[in-house]
Amino acid sequence: MTVTISRLYDNYADAQRAVTNLEAAGVPHSDLSIVANNSDNWYRSDNNVDRDGDGVDDRAEGAATGAGIGAGLGGAAGLLAGLGLLAIPGLGPVVAAGWLASTALGATAGAATGGIVGALTQAGVSKEDAPLYAEGVRRGGTLVSARVPDADRARLEAILNQSAVNLRDRSAAWQKSGWKTFDPSAKPYGADDVRNERQLYGAGMR
């Protein structure tokens, strides 16, 4: 039986380490995914791959058609070599790679249950946690998700837990400031919003 495990990180560097450690632990690249907020343009568009000269990152096009960012990469390349710029409903500009971004941009994107929340719940993340992960990315965080055998869940969750955000504590803080739930139609955070959010929680920069 395969289960999906996910964790939120305040900065991309922590998430990057988590992905690298999961790969080292034997999780296939095809079962890993990363979605990072890019409102502050830390990942520049000139890093994209545009092989056909149409001005669009070809890896993003692959994700939009369900092929998955980074599909076809050699095993040694790793998931992170397939990063591409995308726009996901409710999140705004993100840098992403892997199956979750592909699903989020698939047939359900834009629907009430679509986008990132729909992709997470379809993968088995609880309806309670999925909006929290989405809101975390919206506020400047990075989400790492992995499809893993249930028998390996505890071992691999221990890897993900390193430097991860305590989702319960963080969402409680959001609720104290009036937040209720993730709204895919809400205005995405801008660079200043993300910067203020990181300062509020003492999050490190990328």
Helix share bin: 25-40%
Mean pLDDT across all amino acids: 81
Low-confidence stretches: 47-76, 107-113
Number of DSSP E strands: 5
Characterize the main sheet.
5 strands, antiparallel
Order of helical and strand elements: EHEHEEHHHEHHH
Radius of gyration: 16 Å
The total domain count is 1
Note the gap between the termini.
Answer: 35 Å
Report strand order across the widest sheet.
1-5-2-4-3
Q: Which class best fits the helix and strand makeup? A: alpha+beta
| Shape call | globular
Beta-strand proportion = 15-25%
Count, helices: 8
What would you note in describing this structure?
By secondary structure, this protein is of the alpha+beta class. The protein has one domain. 35% of the residues lie in helices and 17% in strands. It has helices spanning 12-24, 58-64, 99-104, 115-122, 130-138, 153-161, 167-176, 191-200, and strands at 2-9, 32-37, 84-88, 92-98, 142-149. A 5-stranded antiparallel beta sheet has the order 1-5-2-4-3, with helices on both faces. α4 packs antiparallel against α5. The longest helix has 13 residues, at 12-24. The protein is globular and about 40 Å long. Residues 47-76 and 107-113 have low confidence and may be disordered. This is General stress protein 17M-like domain-containing protein. It comes from Bradyrhizobium jicamae.
What's the topology here?
Layout: E1 2-9, H1 12-24, E2 32-37, H2 58-64, E3 84-88, E4 92-98, H3 99-104, H4 115-122, H5 130-138, E5 142-149, H6 153-161, H7 167-176, H8 191-200
Antiparallel strand pairs: 1-5, 2-4, 2-5, 3-4
